[in-house]
Amino acid sequence: MEILKHQHALCNNEIYLKRYKLITDVRKVMNAMLKGIFPHLVLLLIALTLTTKVGASEIIYDRDPVNGHAGYLSAWRVSGDLDKPIIIVKGYDNSNDDHPVDDFNDDLGTLTQTLTAAGFDIIIFDYVNGTADLKQNADNLANFIHYLDSIFEENGFADLNGDGHPDYKLSIIGGSMGGIVTRTMFVQENDAMGVDVFVSLDAPHHGVHLSPYISWAADFIDTIAGHQMLYGEAAYFEHYNWLRAVESNPKFKARVIDPMQTAAIALSNGESSWHLDLGDLIIHTDYHDVSSYVEKDGSRSDYIPYHSAVNMDNPYTMVVDESFDSKDLKYINTDTSYFDRKIPNPRAAHGGPDYAIQQAIDFVVEHSGQLSQQNRAWLIPILDLILSE
Fold it and tell me: For 11-15, 142-146, 282-286, which range has the lowest pLDDT when averaged over its residues?
């Protein structure tokens, strides 16, 4: 895996488990061999795939490019039959120096092993270029789901409800930018893409809000995707106004959004009102006390406000009281019509803390429709134990 993870030409082999399905693009394999790129390793990988008899296996399937732009990376942990996939769509990455297979050996490793034992198939989806146009990475995600559909179709799953996708249970957890990439995919494809459950984890649905006084924060997000998510930028208004124009159409909402089970998880205490002192007013934006934040070298900048993380219908605030050194504010209304459930948390550094990942997984399990009540009863306490460490 370590050797393969940065060899995109080699990883382009479409390899799936022989025990249940084997799809091999012979042309790509032969091209890789003719180019002299680890030919013996390719043969070994295929041999191991053909003889796999274990209950769960890891797969790399990468594609680069897609439709003329940088493509995607993926790592799979499949539990026997591929039948309950959860796609974890990763967030913003301005370094592009890792592969999702590394996540199976990191924080997500134990969690995904437990879920795999419960019959779920975990797919970690990432980008060759994590700073590219959001529409391009949304196209990547759609392309990957079509590929996943093709596997299910060849395994006999039919399109029973006429939505253009084989009828299997598909869940997506979109972390940070991954939530916006997923939301962009729905709009761009004008389709729910067969997704049954969508969980957004601290995604900037009303943009990223950074303190103008901390230069490193602005530098961190100085990319195409960064400007598309940075509230106040022209690229932000162009992208988000397009999303909202489509999503506000009642027919789109009824056909695409409403049939899904959806939840928005916020790394924020979700208070409807809060107090700012002089230090907050000078150094941070008005939303500091209810937002997730980013930090570096001891300094902290706002990142995603609560209203952004839960996609409020009305994201506006009002001043309740104000003096020369403080200000009291509140949200006018915290309702969201996009998500079925909003889940607040203690304010935290932006990222994927264990408790928030647990909440996302719990929501997927709750709405999976494919686990017995008995299985759910023993799975969730195990997750609690793992993620509390």
Answer: 11-15
